[in-house]
Every structure is written in C-alpha cells, then in structure tokens.
Input
Amino acid sequence: MRLAILMTNTDESDFAQARPKDGEKFATLVKEQRPAWDCEVFAVKDGEFPEDIQAFDGAMITGSPASVHDDAAWVSQLFDLIREMDAAQLPVFGACFGHQAIALALGGAVGRNPEGWVHGFALTDSVGALPFGERPAQVGLYASHIEQVTELPEGAEVVASGPGCRVGGYLKGRHIFTTQYHPEMTDGFIADLVEFTADYVGEEVTAAARESLKNTADRDVFGRQIVQFFEWARDGKSF
Output
C-alpha cells in the first residue's frame, strides 16, 4: 500500500522543531501495523501537493492548529483535492483538522465546541459497527481541539462520539474514515503539548488535561482500525 500523508500542521515553533513532525508521526503509526507500506509526506500547509493523487492507494490528512475556516490558499487547494478524492472514491483518512476539512469541503459544517476545549485524554464511544474490523465499545484517544464537526456531509454516518462531540468520527461510503482525535500522538508528546499550550488554553483546561493523562490512549487499537480501513476500501476485504 502506498499512502500520501497530507501534512497540515502549521506549527513551526521551537517546540515543534524539537519533535517529529506530523508526517513522521502518522507514518510511524501506519508502519507499526504494516511495516511494508510506503508513506510519502506532502507539506500541503506550504503549498506542496501531490502531482497526481491517483498514483497513491490512499491519503491521510493530519491535524493542525490552523482552522478549517482560514482563508489561506493552501486550505482552499486542499478542499479542492478532497472533493477530487471523494469523486474518485480514493480512500482517505482524516484526523482532527483533516476530519473537519473533509466535512467542510463536502458540504458539512464546522463550529466551535460550546463546552470549550477538549484537551488531553478523551474516552470516545463507538457508534454502530465498523464494516472493516472489530473494536471495543470505547476507545481512548488524545485530543486537542475547540472546533468540531457540527453537521455531516451528505452520505456520511457517525461512527464515534466523544466528550461534548457528537461527531467524533464518521464514515462515508467505502472511501472516507475520520476521527476528531489524534491517534498519532504518543504518551510523551501529549504530556509535553499540555505543558507547552498551558498559557494559551488557560489554567483550568490545563489542570483538567494533566489529570486526564493518568489514562493512556489505545494507540494500537486505533492504528489497526486505520490500516484495516485502507485494506477494506482498496481490496474489499471483510474482517
């Protein structure tokens, strides 16, 4: 399997420079499950896009501190690419910003969470059955968002929900699978991120996030879901 990782993370701080970029984090997540798969990273936030997305078996769209409502040229170009991939039914997985961007590009809506930040560890509820793999009733994932999908694109269905977030993940056809959360984040990274963002998100949110990190994410569980999605989408396999 050959995947294009469309990196949207705009953080160029010293904090970000000292740690693996999102492209590397998502590639690692995939290769933990399927070591032979090839992942090619495109920094779409810098205007770097694949010349031919159809040359890939699928794509992954990462998270970002940017908003899907930003008027940056690369966001508009990404929306065009999402619509192209949807029309061609190319398998796409989106996380956080990617989850929101797919929804907005395809006619859904994204708005501010009325309950504020979801930051740290979040226990998500599985909604219905996935056609490509078994999963537990609840999956723990790391989170850092204040915007979320408020209206699904036509043809999509909710497959997960989380704290204050009805659309925690959705599936559209056989070719789109998303999560509002961050399966690529490691235990160490989220702990560091909570401290790095403390002044930005505020004392109350940070204290709650620190307490939540007494729990750890189900990285392996969700990593399997991602690769099984691509296998099901491309090869029609049932699990």
The mean pLDDT is 96. The first strand starts at residue 2 and ends at 6. The helical segments are 14-17, 22-33, 73-88, 97-105, 187-196, 198-201, 203-212, 219-235.
